[in-house]
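Methods — Computational structure assignment.
A single polypeptide chain was analysed. Its primary sequence is given first, followed by the predicted tertiary structure written as structure tokens.
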Amino acid sequence: MSRIAPEVWAQIEPARPAGENLTARLAAPSVTNRLQCALDADGSRHLLIALAADDEALRDEQSRGLRVLTRELSVQGEPPTRRLDIQCEDAAGHAAFDLIGGELAAQLAAAAQPPAEIVRRVLSKWRRFWGQLPRTLLSREEQLGLFAELWFLSVWLLPRRAAGDVVASWRGPSGARHDFEWPCRSVEVKATTSTRGRIHRINGLDQLLPPEDGKLFFFSLRLREEAGATNTLPSLVDRCRGQMTGDADALTRFEASLTQAGYSLAHEEEYACVHLRIVEESLFVVQADFPRLTTAQFPNGLPAGIERVEYEINLSTFDHLCTAHTAAEVTMF
């Protein structure tokens, strides 16, 4: 995803104006000459779009720390011009603001819609994320876990089921017991980068319990971090979005689930630095001889002083429980 380069702001900082004026320069000159970055006397960041006489005005103050006004503005001694002024009032949101600017530049260059409509649509998308700023980066383990869930969603489910049904079944971000849930089956998804095989960490005694009425499956995704690999978490997110084109409701729910999972567009540049190669993907059925610990093995409860149980399983010698290594081999989803 394109963004406004940090050096654009650095170049106008020394010329910060006084009074009501703004100091500005083109935000992305190689993309469009319709969008400017600007600083006011207090150092607040603005994105400016000049309007034609018949262009619609816009006022939007629904997002705390981000507002849009239509006003006559004088930039670096130019005559006052009616402009859309998008102001970032929260320094913690600068990274996301640069991404908003990149998306605005691309859409203004396409000129498919009036400026006010472009701004309205872009901010509507970003409003879901703005309230979560500032966000910390997902840990490495969290990134791999989210990647595995999105891989299962994109490769194993979306090609064969309606996007709305698929996104509705994705329950991991909401804290459900299993990552994907349907009335008669559930799937728990795990990723590993272990070189010793299909070794996964299990969180608690109920994670591998089947649903009350149906079967539990276990999806194992083995990954390897390699500089030359083509898969990244942001590229997979974009792939999922592309597969939902035409279903606005599914896409909205997908974006909301990403937010619940702790994924922020403001950190996509950092996430894109982790390149992943798919080593192996396997779908197992969880039955009696599947390696697991459950509450049934502790009928009297955990021993005194034990608060929580986490453990690792190794599925390298359980090929008899493997039902598929590719999405094409299964029909139950």
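Note: The two ends are 32 Å apart (CA to CA).
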